[in-house]
Amino acid sequence: MMEFIFDAPTVIRTKRDGGRLTDAEIDWVIDAYTRGRVADEQMSALLMAIFLRGMDRGEISRWTTAMIASGERLDFSDLRRDGRRVPTVDKHSTGGVGDKITIPLVAVIAACGAAVPQAAGRGLGHTGGTLDKLESIPGFTAEISKAQVRQQLSEIGAAIFAAGELAPADRKIYALRDVTATVESLPLIASSVMSKKLAEGADALVLDVKVGRGAFLKTEAESRELAATMVELGEAQGVPTRALLTDMDVPLGRTAGNALEVAESLEVLAGGGPDDVVELTVRLAVEMLDLAGIDGTDPAQTLRDGTAMDRFRALVSAQGGDVDAPLPIGAHSETVRAPRSGTMGDIDAMAVGLTVWRLGAGRASPGERVQAGAGVRIHRRPGEPVSAGEPLFTLYTDTAERMPAALGELDGAWSVVHDRPAEPIPGSLRSGPPQRPLIIDRIA
Ligand code: URA
């Protein structure tokens, strides 16, 4: 019946001309697209119209609900371990460069006694995705059954899986946005994140909303609006939701690229790793544990004492991976060296993200295979001393022809300055000159 009332060209035209989509139009177009009755080219046109014209909070809420309704919704309210109910909590980031936080964070939360049912995504635009990263571990699979997710949550406290039957509309739209330049849209980001996260059935959610050059939304005001929108969507569905606004002007840590980021995550799980990655992991863990009602545990201690590492190893081996197998690294490498001595100045996160994408770590067409070993190693972070001739960045790829464009992307995106390194911002563990603090605000 619905098929005769609605048609894609009319829905596209309404949004193209700045109109508002009705609840019924949204329900129809999401359902019809999920079933293959609206074509990719029609959805692409609608996504571009939404990108250009936006959606109001009512439209975003309905779009999110329709995406959740396109698939299953998991329920872990009866999850138990040793006869006791285990609280579930998850985190999602709006997308950054070098943002490998999910990998140590999931293990930390599991080690502290909560469980994380994490429906993760693939790379999007210039940002990496947790699934692409973890699949660089030999044997690791994210295609696990619901029964296995439940078993892992109860036994290990963590499962990281492809959304699969959860919000299948998002899976299709996400892949389409990735290759149609329609990623950087507040309504599309908010509905994409929240449809997956609400469908996965966690009791509570913490969102890491990025601010700065490497974020999808460019101004702090837009990121604040995104955070407030997502918190409202979660609370409206009865799921306690909080957001941290965090800096994404410079890449997180010293690596960007799938396998390189897994290696750095293992350093963090072994009690080391870059200070900003550790700081953000611990801050997000504190919020998650608070929402899960777990107190008296110190998340940082689980990184120092190896209990988070134990959970990560158990998680990877339950999902077929071999943490001890060597991680892939691109067959071709180029090193960018310091032109003079001084202090590392700025590093533009967006340029690093695009460099990594050009090296082969992301996709230019739907379903393309990403290179596990492609990426950038950052030898000097902002504020660190630099000697003339020493390595600043190493670029890796399996495809030598990709190297010139990647080097071109990085060109002009960093500086070595003469000044002495300034003191870090008080209260921040992050070294380097006073940039914006890593944790900018908390929205609850
Ligand atoms: N993460 C998502 O799941 N979707 C987006 O649109 C951006 C980040």
From TrEMBL:
The keyword Glycosyltransferase applies. GO terms for molecular function: thymidine phosphorylase activity. Keywords: Glycosyltransferase, Transferase. PROSITE patterns: THYMID_PHOSPHORYLASE. Pfam families: Glycos_trans_3N, Glycos_transf_3, PYNP_C. Residues 343-417 form the Pyrimidine nucleoside phosphorylase C-terminal domain. Residues 425-444 are annotated as: Disordered. Its EC number is 2.4.2.4. Homodimer. Belongs to the thymidine/pyrimidine-nucleoside phosphorylase family. NCBIfam families: PRK05820.1, Y_phosphoryl. This is Thymidine phosphorylase. It comes from Mycobacterium pinniadriaticum.
